[in-house]
Structures
1.
Amino acid sequence: MNKFLIRLLINAVALYAAVSFVDGIQAVPGTNWVSYLGLAFIFGLLNALVRPILKFLTCPLIILTLGLFTLVINTALFWLTGLIGLNFGAGFTVDGFWPAFLGGLIVSIVSVILTTFFKDDKR
C-alpha cells in the first residue's frame, strides 16, 4: 500500500510539472491537488492496463525504431489521461501532438528522477 501511495504522489507531481511547463497544455479551471491525484490514478491505470497491450501490438515498430516508438506510446497515454480526466471534471486539454509529446516526456523524466529519491525498499 505504501508503494502505491508513493507511486501515486510521484505521478501527480509529474503530471503537475507537465501541465505547468508545456505551453500547449491547459489545466481545466478549478484543478487542484486532489484533481491531480485523480489524474495520477487514471494515468497509473492506463499504464498498467493499456500500455502492455499497446507495446505488444506495436512490438515490430518498437524494434524497428530501437525503442523510440515507446515515446509515441507515452504521448498517447498522456493525451488519453487528459481526455479521460476531462470526463470526470478534472484534467487538461492538449493542443496537438507536440505538446502531448513534451508532456509525456516530462512525465517520464520527472517520474524517473522522483522514483530514484523515493524508493520503497521494503521487500
Note: The first strand starts at residue 25 and ends at 27.
2.
Amino acid sequence: MAGRALIVIDMQYDFCPGGALAVAGGDEIIPTVNRLIASHDHVVLTQDWHPAGHSSFASSHPGKAPFETVEMAYGPQTLWPDHCIQGTRGAAFHDALEWTKAELVIRKGFRGTIDSYSAFFENDHTTPTGLGGYLRERGIPDVTLCGLATDFCVAFSAIDAVRQGLATTVVLDACRGIDLGGSLAAMTEKMRAAGVTLA
C-alpha cells in the first residue's frame, strides 16, 4: 500500500516458542505477517538488541526474579529474562520471516541503562529512535503494526505512533501477547482509547 508503512515488531527467535522470552504462539503469526509485508510498499522492522547485562534483565538485579517490577530513573520497569542479546541467535529475525524488502531496521534497547518497548521512543518516552523523523521525511502519514508482543512493544509503539500524528492500525491477527496480570486487555483498551484502529 502506497503511503502506508508496515512496522513489524520484534519477530525474533527469543520471542518465539523455545526462546528466552517466548510469546505463546509467537511463530504462528509469521504467515500472516509475511502476507502483510508482501502487500505494503514500505516495510520497517524493529529488532530488540540488548547488550549483555542490560539493566532490564532480572539477572542484573540480585535477589530479583523475571517479571518482578523495579523502579528506574524513568519509572517502573518490568524485569525480564536475559533475551535478544546482541549478535546471538535469539536476537536474530525468525528464518521464516520474509523480511528482505524492509527499508529500515530500527534496533532498540541497545542503551544499557534504559529499556525500549516502543519503536519510536525509549522507555523514558523522550529519547527518540529516529523512526518518527524517518517517516516524516519519507512523507508517510499512515502506519500498520504487527508482531510481538501485543501488550508491550506493539502497544507502546502504536500509542506513540498516534502521538506522532500518524494514522495507526494494529492488525491483531498478526500479533500475539504475553498477558502479564491482565496486561493484554489493559493495553488493548489503552490503544483503543488513544485512537489506534484495531483491525
Note: The radius of gyration is 16 Å.
3.
Amino acid sequence: MSTLIDPIRLAIPSKGHLYDGVVDLLRTAGYKVRRASDRQYEATISGQPRFHIVFMRPTDIVIQVQEGRCHLGVTGMDVYAEHAFEAEHASVVIPDLGYGGCRLVVAVPESWIDVSHIMDLVDLTTEFKIAGKTFRVSTKYPAVVRQYFRKWGIYYYQFVDSQGALELHPSLGIADIIVDLTSSGTTFKDNRLREIKGGTVLESAACLIGHAPSLSTLVAEGETGPLALLLDAIDGVKRSEGLLHLEVVGNPAAPGPGPETAAAVARYLCDQGAQQLVRGEVWDDQGQPGWRVTALVAASKLSACQRPLLALGASRIVGLPAQFVFDRDVPSTFNELRERLLRD
C-alpha cells in the first residue's frame, strides 16, 4: 500500500511570467496562493492544507522534482527538455498549461541571403570545417540543440558558453548563429537576425511536471484525492478559456416563436462554431411558452452574433464567462496519468 504524502510540495517559479501565469491559473481554479511578500520562498494555498508551495528558479524546479524533494513543479517545457536526459524520475503531467508559449528556433544574420533552410547549415558547417574554421553556435539549450542538429545531419560546430541576451552575439563576433527562444520574432528583427525554415527546435509553454514515484502514490489516493482534484480543476479552467456560456431566449410575443425559430438559432450558432448546443422550452411569469438555446461560444464572436440572433427571433441574449468546462467525452488529465502509470 502506498504511503501518504503529506504535505504535497509544489514548486513554482519565484518570479516572471511563469510565476504570474501559474498563480493566475491556480487562483481561477480555486487554489489561491497565499504569499506574504516577494521575498518569501514558501507559501500555502487557501483551503488546501495538503499543498505546500515553494518558489525557485525554473531549472532548479526540474532538479528538485527529479530528486523527489518536490512532488510537483511548474517550469517551461524548454527547461524540462534541456534537462530531461538527467531527470529520469521527472515526468510531464500537463505539457501545456495554456500560457508562456514560445519557440526555440535557429536564427542567422539577415545578411546570410544564401541560408534560408536548416539544410543549408549542413553545407555551411561542412565548408567551415574544410576551411579549418569553427562554426560557433550560441544557445542556452545545448542538449536539445545537439539532438536536433544530429537529426538533420549537422555535426561540425561548437557551442559557445552563453548567458544573458544572445541577439548581439553574431554582430559582436561571439558566435555565427544563435538558437534562442522567441514568441513574436520582433527581438530577432530588431537585431538584424531572422529565423530559417525548418529551424524550429522546440515548441515550448509552461508545463506541470511530477516526481514519478510520488505521482504513483498520489494517484493511488483516487479520484477524490488532492492530485485528482487539482488536475480536474486545471482541466476545467483550460477547457473554458475564451468561452462564454450563451443563453438565447425567445419571447412568446417575438416574431416567429416556436420550435422552428429555436432550430434556426441552433443552426446559426452551429455554423459559428458553437459547442454543446442544447434546446429547450421556457415559460414566462404568466405561463406563456417560449424557447431557449444554450451553447458554448467563443467570446470574440458574441458581439457579431447578437444582431443575427435578434433577427431570427431572439428576445434576450446572455453570455457569461465559463470558468470551468467539463466534458464526459474528453479524457481527463488524471485518468490519462493513472493509465500511463499503470502501463509503466
Note: The domain at 8-100+205-240+331-343 is CATH 3.40.190.10 (D-Maltodextrin-Binding Protein; domain 2).
